[in-house]
Specification:
By secondary structure, the protein is mostly helical. The chain has one domain. The protein is built from 10 helices and no strands. It has helices at residues 2-15, 17-27, 33-65, 69-89, 92-95, 101-109, 114-123, 126-138, 142-164, 166-207. Helix 2 (17-27) crosses helix 9 (142-164) and helix 3 (33-65) crosses helix 8. The longest helix is centred in the last third of the chain and has 42 residues, at 166-207. The N and C termini lie far apart (40 Å).
């Protein structure tokens, strides 16, 4: 259960579905309630599939490119830290590439956006993918893997519920409320990133022969 809670909290903080609520509401403004519900479901399924693939296939990708776990932790930690700073400074959309004019024009013309940009890169981005690859290296027993997969499924379910209720959340919390929550989550995300970087650095230092 400790593994489930840790993985869920870390993954949910990095993905930050609440920060996607304003963008989801804007992209689905012209959709009916049924179409919006379908989009939220497809987005959550896509996120779940991407994260599951990243968890199981990530190790083989590292081996293929000859990347060490410590290098991944440092790189992933840096990505997570920058995402956290983006949340703290209110530039999360820009950090995800949503301010680019060509991207915005593409979004305006896109009929279905459950895979991109909502699933990738808004939710299942480099930070969450690198996080899951690290979890794969850290939790190798069958029981631990099941707990991680259960946490991934719980994050996918939470993402679906948040996107499903996005119009109501936007009305209740308002832009300022969502922004405040995102800043709090941003601090947690930065802490997770720093933890991964420090763990890798300590491991590298301990492996050196003086």
């Amino acid at each position: 259960m400790d593994i489930f809670l840790y993985v869920f909290a870390a993954l949910f903080s990095v993905i930050n579905p609440l920060g996607t609520v304003p963008i989801f509401v804007g992209l689905t403004a012209d959709e009916t309630s049924a179409e919006r519900n379908k989009t939220s479901l497809l987005t959550s399924v896509n996120v779940l599939v991407i994260l599951t693939i990243a968890f199981f296939a990530g190790t083989y990708i590292l081996d293929f490119f000859g990347i060490s776990l410590n290098a991944l932790r440092i790189a992933g930690g840096m990505i997570i830290v920058t995402s956290g700073f983006a949340l703290l400074t209110g530039s999360f959309a820009k950090h995800k590439g949503m301010k680019n004019k060509r991207v915005k024009k593409d979004l305006d013309n896109r009929e279905r956006f459950s895979l991109t940009p909502l699933a990738i890169p808004m939710l299942a981005g480099p930070g969450s993918i690198s996080l899951l690859i690290t979890f794969n290296q850290k939790y190798s027993s069958t029981t631990n893997i099941l707990w991680v997969l259960l946490a991934v499924f719980a994050v996918g379910l939470a993402t679906f519920l948040i996107l499903r209720c996005a119009p109501y959340l936007a009305k209740i919390l308002g832009a300022s409320g969502i922004n405040a929550i995102s800043r709090i989550v941003g601090f947690i995300v930065i802490s997770i990133g720093v933890e991964y970087i420090s763990t890798a650095v300590i491991s590298i230092v301990q492996s050196l022969d003086f």
